[in-house]
Structure formats: C-alpha cells, structure tokens
Amino acid sequence: MFFFDKKAVVMNIKFNPSNSLLIVFIVTSLLTFSACKNQTGLLVKDSSSSVAVERIGLDGEYDPSGLAKRVAKAFEEDVLLKGISSVYVAQNDSKIILKGTISNQTFLDRLVTVARNVRGVSEVDISQVKIR
Known about the structure:
Blueprint: H1 6-11, H2 20-48, H3 66-77, E1 87-92, E2 95-102, H4 105-116, E3 123-131
Parallel strand pairs: 2-3
Antiparallel strand pairs: 1-2
C-alpha cells in the first residue's frame, strides 16, 4: 500500500511565484488522494460486513427480527390486510411464523402470499393460525 506523508511534501516546497501552480497541483492531489482513500475504506468496510437478508431491518440496518418486521409492514401496506390486527408475525431464521386468528381462508391465503413476496422469506408456517 502507498501512503503520502503530507507534512514532508508541504515542508520541502519553498514558495515563490513560479512554484504556485505546482503547490496548487500538489495540494489538490493530496486532497483527492485523501478523499479516494476514505471512499475506498468505506467500500471495503461495506463489502466485508454482509448481513443475512433475514436480519435486515426496516431501514436496512441489522435487526435480529428484521424479516418479521418487514413482513408485518407488508401486511400493513396491503389494502386487503390493513385492518387485521389478530395475527402476529414471528421469525425463525428465514422462516415466517404466523400466529393468531383470522376470519376466513381468503385472508389467510392473502397473508401467505404477501409474506412470501417479502425478500428473504423461505417458508411461511400457518400451523398456529386459527380460522374463526
């Protein structure tokens, strides 16, 4: 890896009018290098810390129950499911577990369809949902 010693470069240049363009070039180069170095560090940091899709929260942050929260949000945003409050969402890794009661099979089928369309869901368990 190559590093600049910014102090050494600046201290070795003696100012005179003919060197002013050189100074501007060197300072600009150092600032550009520093900015690129910071950006590269961010890219390396981001690419090395991958988060499992089922652990991604509502805003893209790490969240151990992120998938369940994203499924619950999808239910809230669905026109047919918006008013249902008797079904709870849990998760076990990438598996979604629905619990509670629902009024009919059509709503249950819609819950499963919406949940399966959320990125990261591998399976939907409805064994703990009762139809009234």
